[in-house]
Amino acid sequence: MALVYSDKAILAPMVRFGTLPFRLLALRCGADIVYSEEIIDFKMISCTRVENKVLGTVDFAMSDGHCVFRTCEEERNRVVFQMGTSCAARALQIAKLVENDVAGIDINMGCPKPFSLTGGMGAALLSKPEQVREILSTLVKGVKVPITCKIRLLPTLEETISFVKMVESTGVAAIALHGRYKHQRSSTACHVDLIKAVVESTSLPVIANGGSRQISRYDDIEKFRKATGAASVMVARAAMHNPSVFRKEGFLPWDAVSLEYFQLSARYQPAFANAKYGLAAGVCVSILQEPFGEKLLAARTYEEVAEAMGWTEQYDVIEKELARKEVELQSSRFGQPLVVGDPGRKYEQLRAQPEISEEGTMEMHITFKLDNYRNKPTPKSVLLEWARRNSKKQPVFVTTERSKDRTYKSVCTVSGQGYSSTFWERSKRFAEHAASLVCIDVLGIEERRWNESEPAAPDQNGSSS
Questions:
Q1: Cα separations (Å) of 148 from 88, 234, 265, 353, 403?
Q2: At how many degrees (to 10) do helices 254-268 and 312-334 cross?
Q3: Residue 324, burial from CB neighbour count under 10 angstroms (0-12, 13-18, 19+)
Q4: How far are the Cα atoms of 79, 180, 317 from residue 339, in angstroms, in the given order?
Q5: What is the pLDDT of residue 263?
Q6: With left for phi above 0 and alpha for psi between -120 and 50, is residue 459 left, alpha or beta?
Q7: Per-residue b/e over 439-451, b at no fewer than 16 CB within 10 Å?
Q8: Annotated catalytic residue, options 47, 111, 149, 412
């Protein structure tokens, strides 16, 4: 069923905010349609569509594994992929790549940032109507999902109306209009009267945008729609600070919203910097002065965010589930049934015996389970203490991050020999513990606290235990 753009409350495209977790949160809070952040066509050209079995997502990833766009079945019929482009041929190439996984495609013609302008994209297209006509006509004819574009006001009302009529002639499904000029920012009041005039001049569904200064709760979305006469309303800043602005029943408490956003982020693994930005600059911005605000700002991993916010229990549940899926996937790759290790050893493994990699590293398929070490020394602590007591040099950990899904694998070197798990962990700390487990198993080190009266050595050479 084709996406309909009338009587809808829509999440606007927002840089760093428009990732999968934030889009899903907005949908769960009541948004009808969600736009991705603007994604430049050149970034997508080298991408390959990959089904991520662990996360349950469809990823469009570059050759180096970096995920440019991630989506999932939950938003499939309500997500619009927004593209930055200045070329009809490139736009069609990218549109064909994503059309089976999104509900619509939008061309950004309103971004006033220098990056877009110098690339001939965004608001630069407002002065190039024939180029716009070619891009939109090519997409409408070549893609099966609805095509839209998002613009700003041109210098005069007449020019704006003329541009909109040209857009209408291409056969697009709708047009989003930000009620400010290219040089104006959010501190300037939205020109509601000009949006209304444009609405009255076209038969296209117009999505009114730019009214966040007037929108502080759900009822205000409808007030803004009536004031502009628009078919639908697109919300940016008001949603950024609390996506539950889309809830007809009223706002959810900030702690409930922020926790769900964090859980979605931990579950769907966007770039950590974006996830943290969504918390610190968005849904948690009002509590940064609280005691845990400083810890949130200092956090460098999802795990540290969980510790700062008191969400460790919820985070561990997600980590455990992702680890389980990864183990199942790895098990199917090896063509062997999952073998659970000796319960006294407190880890899972797929290979009974270690194998030597081409680099000479001793490898086993072992994953670290945090729940198994709540009341006992962690593998890394045990290994460090063993090395100290046996006058060995302290183990050295070298950890690698896999960019496509932001997972980690560590090599632990003891007495010149490297040890590693073939399992990719969800955090650097877990990867180091998994490598320690391999070393402990191969060397036959007993997992215990050496002397209850003498605590085990602190975790060094990396993240804490």
A1: 14, 13, 28, 57, 32
A2: 20
A3: middle
A4: 40, 62, 22
A5: 96
A6: beta
A7: bbbbeebebeebe
A8: 111
Give the mean pLDDT of 203-224. 94
Q: Is the pLDDT of residue 338 over 50?
A: no
Element (H, E) at 201: helix 192-201
And the tokens for 183?
A: 């040089």
pLDDT band for position 332 (cuts 50, 70, 90)? low
* Strand, helix or coil for residue 125: helix
Distances (CA, A) of 229 to 190, 207, 363: 14, 10, 65
Per-residue tokens: 217: 């709760």
Q: Would residue 318 be called left, alpha or beta, if left means φ above 0 and alpha means ψ between -120 and 50 degrees?
A: alpha
Q: Is the pLDDT of residue 463 over 50?
A: no
Q: Locate tokens 């800043």: which residue?
A: 237
Is residue 439 annotated as a catalytic residue, yes or no? no
Length of the chain: 465
CA pair distance 12, 14, nearest whole angstrom: 6
> Which contacts (CB < 8 Å, 24+ apart) does range 297-301 have?
300/272, 301/272, 301/427, 301/428, 301/429, 301/463
Q: How confident is the model at residue 241 (pLDDT cuts 50, 70, 90)?
A: confident
- The per-residue pLDDT for 138 is 98
pLDDT at 369 over 80: no
Please spell the DSSP secondary structure of 448-463, one letter per residue: S-SBTTBPPPPP-SSS
Handedness of CA 162, 134, 61, 64 (dihedral sign): negative
**What is the per-residue DSSP string for 364-407?**
E-EE--GGGGTTS--HHHHHHHHHHHTTPPPPEEEEEEETTTTE
Kindly report the pTM of this predicted structure. Answer: 0.74
Structure tokens given for 80: 């619009």
Output the six-digit token pair for 431: 């990867």
Q: Is the pLDDT of residue 102 over 90?
A: yes
Can you tell me whether residue 176 is helix, strand or coil? strand
